[in-house]
Amino acid sequence: MTSDSPHKPLPSHKAPPGTLLQQPTEAPPLVTVSSSALCVMTDFRKVPVATIGPTATLTEATEAMIKRGVRLLLVIDDTENVIGLITARDTQGERPIQLIHEHGGRYSDLQVRDLMAPVDAIDLLDMSRVMRAEVGDIVATLKNWGRQHALVGETDPKTGANRIRGIFSATQIGRQLGLPVQTFDVARTFAEIQAALSREY
Hints:
alpha/beta; CBS-domain; 4-stranded mixed beta sheet
C-alpha cells in the first residue's frame, strides 16, 4: 500500500478487564408451511460440513457432534470422498449395545465404520427439486422416511461429479417453527411439527 493510498489504519484500544463475549441476539427466522425449503436447509456452501473418519471411536464421534452442535456426521476417507454417515442415534442409542451383545467387545472398541450407514444406502434429495419445494414438502418427506435428517445432493454441471450440497434437520425445522424440539423420538418430533404446521391452516 503506497503512502498516497486512500485507505488508512483504524485506531484501536486495549481490551479492558471484564470484557465479555457477544452472544447471538438473533434466532433463526421463523418459517411457515409455505416458506421456501431453502429457508430451513443447512447449505454446505455457507456452513462447513461436519465430518469424521471411519476409524474414529463412537466416543470421538459423539464429542465431535457436541462440539459442532449437530446430530449427524458425514464419514469421509483420506481423499475426502463421502463413504457414509453416522448419527447421534447410532452412537448413543441401542445399536452399539446390540452390536456388543451380538459380537462381544467393549463400547470403547467400537468405531464409526462399525455403525455408519454406507454411502450407497444414503438417500439424497435433488437440489433442483429442493429449490422449488416448500417447508411442508420437506416435513412430509422426513415423516415418510421416519428420519430426523435428509441430505441434499447435486451434480456439478462442469465435471459431472456428485456432491452433497446440504442437509435438512427435523430439529432445525422445529426450532425455526418456534418449537423446542430436542429429542430422538421421531414420532414425537413430527407430531410437534405437524401440530405447528396445522395451526397455520
